[in-house]
Amino acid sequence: MRTEQITAKALKQVGDDRYKLSLIVAKRAEALANGAEVLLNIDTTKMKFADIALLEVAEGKIGFEAFVEEK
């Protein structure tokens, strides 16, 4: 799948909110860089953390709720 298609699919998952999507991808990419487990069943060895995070959002594996801190 092409990056444009993945991005469009991921945007739909977050209600077309680009700010929310960028925040989720940034936070998830940071978590992956720090050793978090990949939630996808594909070979991600040659993928960048941001690309993995974007694909996880597109596939519905992770969403905004995962990053909202309880007060």
From TrEMBL:
Annotated protein name in UniProt: DNA-directed RNA polymerase subunit omega
One Gene Ontology term of the molecular function aspect: DNA-directed RNA polymerase activity
One Gene Ontology cellular component annotation held by this UniProt entry: DNA-directed RNA polymerase complex
UniProt KW keywords: DNA-directed RNA polymerase, Nucleotidyltransferase, Transcription, Transferase
Family: Belongs to the RNA polymerase subunit omega family.
Function: Promotes RNA polymerase assembly. Latches the N- and C-terminal regions of the beta' subunit thereby facilitating its interaction with the beta and alpha subunits.
Domain of life from the UniProt record: Bacteria
Name of the gene encoding the protein in the UniProt record: rpoZ
UniProt GO BP: DNA-templated transcription
Oligomer status and interactors: The RNAP catalytic core consists of 2 alpha, 1 beta, 1 beta' and 1 omega subunit. When a sigma factor is associated with the core the holoenzyme is formed, which can initiate transcription.
Pfam families: RNA_pol_Rpb6
Enzyme's top EC category: transferase
UniProt feature coiled coil, ranges: none
EC number: 2.7.7.6
Reactions it catalyzes: RNA(n) + a ribonucleoside 5'-triphosphate = RNA(n+1) + diphosphate
Species this chain originates from: Campylobacter mucosalis CCUG 21559
